[in-house]
Amino acid sequence: MVNRHNVVVKSLDTLSSLTVGNGSFAFTVDATGLQTFPDYYANGIPLGTQSEWSWHSFPNTQNYTIEQSFKEIDSHGRKVIYTPQIAKPQRRKDAVNFIRQNPHRVHLGNIGFELYKKDGSKALTTDISDVNQTLDLWTGEITSHFVFDGQPVEVKTVSHQQKDIIAVSVESPLLKSGQLMLRIRIPFPTDKFIDSGNNWANVDKHSSIVTKQGEKRVIVKHKIDDLNYTIGLSSSLNVKSQIKQAHYFVIQPVTQATSWSFTCDFSEKTPEANQVNFAAVRTNSQTGWNQFWNSGGAIDFSGSTDKRATELERRIILSQYLTKVQGTTETPPQETGLTYNSWFGKPHMEMHWWHSVHFALWGRTDLLEKSLNWYKIALPTAKKIAHRQGFKGARWQKMTDYKGGETASSVGAYLIWQQPHIITFAELCYREKPNKQTLEKYKELIFETADFMASYAYFDKEKGKYILGPGLIPAQERFKPEQTFNPSYELNYWYWALNTAQEWRKRLGLKPNKAWQEVIDKLSALPVKDEVYLAAESAQDSYTNPVFLTDHPSVLATYGMLPVTPMVDTTIMKNTFEKVWEVWHWDDTWGWDFPMVAMSATRLGLPNYALDGLLMNIRTNTFLNNGHNYQDQRLRLYMPGNGGLLAAVALMCAGYDDCKEENPGFPKDGSWKVQWEGLKKFF
Predict the structure, then answer these.
(1) Exposure pattern of 464-487 as b/e (b: 16+ CB <10 Å)?
(2) pLDDT tens digit string along 548-570?
């Protein structure tokens, strides 16, 4: 089933780049099997080499601080400090930009072929023909065939599953003629929103030197400010290296042969003395990927008559591969994984749900848990933010980094829907491992989160209710923070999460928290108008203002991402779904919106809508040949779309608590034959 969706590439297609890796390290290649044409691919799926440790900051010579972004927002007569982006004065603007840009992920190095024609001219993309490349998903191996200067080249590319190592084998007469060599070229990081790993400028601002050159080993040491690492090449043949220019090394076998294999290891510490060879890395890749595919869930649609079944199965298989290889780091993933930087390489905490919840639903909770220890690293900063704003507990960062740093953001500073995510993650872990160890591991994170959530809610004495906002932007990022209060999704998430936190106290033998219970008992009702839930109580024109009919239709997350609670009337929720389906501007949405629609439709007993929503023919719901979820020219890949798809189909198959129906997200008219195993029910 997995292999019937192996990716096949027949040209130098810049949107069909393929990746090998292990979740903490990823190496993306073009149709040659290496990173031979990085400039050509830069505006497609770039040819990145990134690791979870590859972070860098430009020197803070101006002593910029987050405090320079402070801005007070009035909330119920009290001034609350937020950190938006600032246009003036210039120094504060510069400070905000610096903090947004730093730290950032860096590309460790471009490893590609140097190809020369017989006349000595260097290869152009137009000189590559007869491309036939395959990614074997079951083994994680890329086999690439192409013809250059009339000669065939066969390349196999794999990645170690525990270490930052790639292994490559090459067979070609071009080796013997000296027309095929290897290039190691190290780019300089940009301070731009996007970094595609091909900035060859600024050569004087970093250093790359060969520190070791033996018969079969070459080590390049790279230093940029406080980041030091090595790139080590281990060869099956004796090799020689030359410096073509700064940060640009060419390596080729000394021995005349038509076959060559090598490994390339990336290390922030001293390289390992015992180098592995191609065969060992290849075996490791096969073993690791076999274990992955034989663990957790599987879904098979063979035998279905609905013409969309094959495409949905393809998306499911490729999304499993991509989320594993791109997003199982020890920190929350960035939205473009380990391929190229977006938002300066920084993860977004509200997206952690879409990146990672599916791992637990697919029976791979261990992959979810890899990133949860980060919350303990980030906790001191989260508590500092809450304290600064006059709240208790911990307010989780939105746009952050591997150390849990805070970043100024005109939207992110006001988002709140990332706050309960850690409670969702911990509850999923507890369902998998319902023991004292799990409770002890996550209790501090849950209790600090709940303390913030309860203190954030404002008690309106006149209404006798707790209110969320003003001073917030909901998941649908179309509302002004100064005016917005009581968004439907966030209200239900607050209710569910505080109740779940109380349940954790009960499991630990503790009494209920009175402050939490006060908010639970007196939380504002979900705002309703004309028997439909509003995006927010402050937005009475939720369905008439065109601006409010774009971006995420997060009102559907109220009963989709979340289970039914006493806050939700399912009849009104069904009316809401039908209203959103009818009026929404679907061409102005994001990749995870379609899984969100499918989850809401599934819970409402609307399986046809679940499938139509999940497979809606909209640009931001495009899944490329390699499985990546394409958004636009900026975001040519978007990992929350892949993770969201997997979360949705798990719910559509396995259902949710108290669901008695088999495969609730699929029609029962015989058009879908759904076989699955290893999936878990959601809340």
Answers:
(1) ebbbbbbbbbbbbbbbebeebbbb
(2) 999 999 999 999 999 999 999 99
